[in-house]
Every structure is written in C-alpha cells, then in structure tokens.
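Data availability (excerpt). The following record was deposited with the supplementary files.
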Amino acid sequence: MRRIAAGLNNAPPATETIPGRSRQRRRAGSANARRTLTVQDLANLDVDDLARWFTAHYGHGPGVAYPGVVIGSTNAALAQICTLTRMPWLPQTVMLPLQWEPRCWSSLPAAGALGIQAADAFHGRNPEVALHQSHDEWSGPAAVSGAPRMRAKLRLLPAAYVRFLDSSLATGTVVILLHDESVWPTTRLGQRHVLHIGSRHSPLPAQWRDVVIPDGLSPDAEFGFDPDLDADVARWCVAHGHPLYRVRIPDAQALRPAVTALARYRSHLPVPGVLDVLRVLSDRTEVTVNRCSLPRRC
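Predicted structure:
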C-alpha cells in the first residue's frame, strides 16, 4: 500500500525537535555518501551475497563440525554466548546502509518516498525479504546525521545459509532459533516494507504524535524476530535430522544474566556445551526454551 500515515506531510522537521545539529548533519553528508549504498546498488544486490559474507567468517566444509548453530535475532549477549560455546551465529536482520538525500534527514515524507523507491529496487531481486525503515534522532550508527536506516529481515533461509548448514553440522547437531518478541508501532509502506518512527532509545517527538499514525505492530527493526523464518528453519531441521530449540525472549536485555552465568562455567568447564547453554537459559524466568518435539508438525 503506497501511503504514508495521514497528516504526515504536516509533521514538523526533525531539526526543530533537536536544535543545533545542522552542522553535524552537513559534516556527516560526505561520509554518508562514501560508505553507503545507492538505490541502484540495492537493485543489484542479492540477499544471498549478504548471507555468503556472513558464512565466509566461519570455516566450513569437510572436516569442520560445530557443536550447534544459532539463527535469528540480533543480540549482543547472544554473540558472547556463541563465542563461549564456539557456535556460529547466522543473523536474520542485516543493516543496509542506504545513501539518503539530505532532505530525508528532516522530512518524513521525503524519507518515506525515498524508502519506497529503495524498497522497490531491492525487492526486484529479493521479493521475500522484509524491509524495516527506521527514523529517529539518537540511536544507531547513523545518529550523527539523523538519517533513516533500512534493515532487511530474512523470511526464508538464503541458499548460502543452507549450504553452510549442510556442510558444517553433523546429523543430530542442535539448532537454536532465537525469537526476540519485541515489537514497535509501524506504518506500512508496501507489502514487505514498514516504517518505524522513533525507537526504544528515542521516543516519538511530541510534535509528531498527532500526525504520525501507525497502522499496526511489527517486529522491532533492530532486535525483533520475523516469525516467517521459523517455518523454513523448522522444515530444514526436520529434513536433515536436527533437533530445533526455540529460545523466546521479551527484549534484547533478557540474555544478559545468562552470559554471566555461563561465564562462571568456565572455572570448571572451559567450553560450555550447547546443552549447558540451554539449561542456563531455561533457568531464567524471562526466557522460554522449547524443543520442537513433533518433527512433522514443528
């Protein structure tokens, strides 16, 4: 659906909500152009190239076998757990550093229009990937410029992930799927394209609350899990004989205590096993761990 929420064109510029940042934005402009992707770049980008870049950081092939693998939500504590256990992490969410025009830094309508153009270009080769466009003033790597950010969320396992799993996991190796269930109000700009205004780090400015009208809830752009990926991972696990454990957390902070607990294991167990990880996670009241016990229906 090609629309921005009713009244969005009347939203005050972002520069009015946080004064004194115009010079920062101008300085950030040239850097933004040097390290970002154009709309044409997105039109030529295949999401499997991104997946291949991630898997290239891990050894795989004959003679390589990992104790388990984690797929799903972005989480800093999870990265530490993977390091402790020597498990690879295959993320669902990927930042796409889109080159925004200066007018998009302070104009929500301009940001929405350019986002739609970028989404159309990207979806030409990647129709099954969800795009989450974020616009806030303070959080994330683009905070100096105040520019919007675009994140891609995988809804199917890319071919590069499948090749990595096929070549790096022995039969029966555990697959952990991390579901961060945090959500955020969004406005839908396309079938697989939503706009996030504000974030947990940067609440919606009071001047925009009456004119930016969300029409639903979506997984949090940075941390949230798109549940469509779950079915594809479950199908792969069933077909290849891998137990699947779903780890559900309410937000990105929920795994922090588990990292502390696992660190204590190292005093008598230098490399915690995957089942040790699942046991520690199960002990946290805010974390839910479920094994898919019905292979044909999980």
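Summary of structural features: Confidence is low (pLDDT under 50) at residues 1-34, 139-146, 294-298.
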